[in-house]
């Protein structure tokens, strides 16, 4: 059964702690992405990776870090430097269709930092 | 800078009352416009990709259209299960998407 999995669904952390969110896909997609969604807002791109061992900053990369050691996995670390880490985090992967890249999303991880 | 604006922010419909959602965009060299449906607490679900002005795509009660400056998502005779947030996104160069803020649709029986 192909898809994108994110774990855990809910995550709670104390301020000052780093936390890593998991994202795995078995769709054989080359590109993977991390987005952040705040209440009532659209998605904002944090980081993306088009191939293994390579990734680029998105629009709001400060306070986040990623790695891409395997094609299937793209974990996101929310560091203590991120000023407002509480949000809904979405991972996506994409396949090239003609000139375009249709992105498919995982179920999301809701992070609460207190 | 690419920009996407969706309107209205929220839409309340009676079951069977057809309506349209708007997605206006400013982008250099549009390569694709995407519509997604998102249920509360879940990831967005892919609906459509539109590539060029004049293109239309349909899925059940949903129909998406594209012009050079905007896209419309028409909901025909909606049912309560069509209640969701509908997101629009554009792709210019590369494979990054720029998303609008979404339209929350509530269909009452």
Structural class of chain B: mainly beta
Give the low-confidence spans of chain A: none
Question: What is the oligomeric state here?
Answer: heterodimer
* Global shape of chain A: globular
Question: What structural class do you assign from the helix and strand content of chain A?
Answer: mainly beta
Specify the helix fraction band of chain B: under 10%
Distance between the termini of chain B: 41 Å
Helical content of chain A stands at: under 10%
Rounded mean pLDDT of chain A is 92
DSSP helical segment count of chain B: 0
Helix and strand run of chain B: EEEEEEEEEEE
DSSP summary, beta strand count of chain B:
11
Please state the overall shape of chain B, judged from the principal axes of the Cα atoms.
globular
Give the helix tally of chain A: 0
Mean pLDDT of chain B: 94
Describe the 3D structure.
- The complex is a heterodimer of chains A (114) and B (109).
- Helices cover 0% and strands 55% of the residues of chain A.
- The model of chain A has no long low-confidence stretch (mean pLDDT 92).
- Chain A is built from no helices and eleven strands.
- In chain A, strands 2, 4, 5, 6, 9, 10 and 11 form a seven-stranded mixed beta sheet that branches.
- With 109 residues, chain B is mainly beta.
- Helices cover 0% and strands 58% of the residues of chain B.
- In chain B, the strands form two sheets. In chain B, strands 2, 4, 5, 9, 10 and 11 form a six-stranded mixed beta sheet that branches.
- The A-B interface holds A 4, 6, 31, 40-45, 48, 50, 58, 88, 90, 92, 94, 96-108, 110 and B 4, 6, 9, 31-32, 34, 36, 41-46, 49, 51, 87, 89, 91, 95-97, 99-102.
């Amino acid at each position: 059964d192909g898809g994108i999995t994110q774990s855990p669904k809910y995550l709670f952390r104390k301020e000052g702690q780093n936390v890593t969110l998991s994202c795995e896909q078995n769709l054989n997609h080359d590109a993977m992405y991390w987005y952040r969604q705040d209440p009532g807002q659209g998605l904002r791109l944090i980081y993306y990776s088009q191939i293994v061992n390579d990734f680029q900053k998105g629009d709001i990369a400060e306070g986040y870090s990623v790695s891409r050691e395997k094609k299937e996995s793209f974990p996101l670390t929310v560091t203590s430097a991120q000023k407002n880490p509480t949000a809904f985090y979405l991972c996506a992967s994409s396949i090239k269709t003609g000139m375009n890249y249709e992105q498919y999303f995982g179920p999301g991880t809701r992070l609460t930092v207190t | 800078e690419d920009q996407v604006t969706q309107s209205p922010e929220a839409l309340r419909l009676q079951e069977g009352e057809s309506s349209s959602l708007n997605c206006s965009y400013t982008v250099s060299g549009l390569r694709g416009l995407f519509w997604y449906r998102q249920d509360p607490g879940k990831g967005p679900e892919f609906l459509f990709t539109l590539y060029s002005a004049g293109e239309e795509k349909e899925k059940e009660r949903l129909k998406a259209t594209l012009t050079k400056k905007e896209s419309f998502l028409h909901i025909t005779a909606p049912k309560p299960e069509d209640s969701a947030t509908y997101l629009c996104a554009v792709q210019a160069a590369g494979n990054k998407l720029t998303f609008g803020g979404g339209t929350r649709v509530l269909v009452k029986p």
